[in-house]
Amino acid sequence: MNITETLFDFCRLNGPSGFEDAVSARCETLLKEFSSDIRRDTLGNVIASIPCGKAHAKKLLIDAHIDELGLIVSSISDGFLRFELIGGIDPRILPGRELTILNGENLFGVISCLPPHLLSPDQMEKTIAVKDMYIDTGLSGEEAKKRIPIGTVAVYRDEPEKLKNNFLCGKAMDDRSCFAAILRALELLKGKTLDADLFIMASVQEEVFMRGAGPAAFDIAPDYSIVVDVSNAKTPDSKEQVTLELGKGPSLSIGPNTDRRFTRFIEEQGRKKDIPIQFTVHTRNSGTNAYPIQVSRGGVISAVVELPSAYLHMPVEVVKLEDIENTARLIAAAAEAMGGIQ
User: Residue 107 domain-assigned?
Assistant: First the structure.
């Protein structure tokens, strides 16, 4: 598996929360190499089961979400589109942003912005409210109403790119880089004897209050879960509490949203394989699917493996290739050792 090619192909797909069909379909195709039992549930989560064939085996759910941030058209005025946000987008980055409008034609659009010549000094210092922004497609009012129904969604229009030194940049790295890591982990596990039944989930609607994973976990009823998601990496302007570093390996989350013994077990398997590991503290909800999964049914023993990423929720999210590989190795090591868990 070429991680970069797989990831870039994956990130080029458009699938904001609630509109993930194209991404779910690709996940089904990618998972066919590893499972003959793949289904898509009511919400759109893609779930692949890989039974170990042993009686009374524990169930291990490995999850990464596949939705991305987006915008949704709420009204049309003289051909210009008003919109609302899907997920946690910082309004400061929107003026002048290029978009792909998913109306069946993949229309190009830009978010309108006043040039600095027309702004007062006071306006230059303020963030423009989303309610005061418009998407410009070049269409007339009548054309826009015919071709772009209310409720049409849009996403960042950005091609994934390679930076120097194996850094990868683009939209939707959160969290498709982590699904790529899961696919690589499955490749590492292929042909090996396991002691747990694996359930691989490409979950939907994580960016809108983690809606997809909980119902799926209730249905699967796993004994253990590993949620794989990105986490903030250090940049020159990041806060002091941001401690993860790109290129230093995956992180394990510590806090009430994760099981300490299971987290320590995963760490031990990684140490045996000389995998570099970092740590993150989450004192409440980890902000990942670990929360709805952990409290599903009677509770699920959960851990979070985090992939360091810079510029989260931006169209230029950055991850490092070696971190994806080491995240995959850590997931595979934990899955392979599940027979020895106490």
Answer: yes
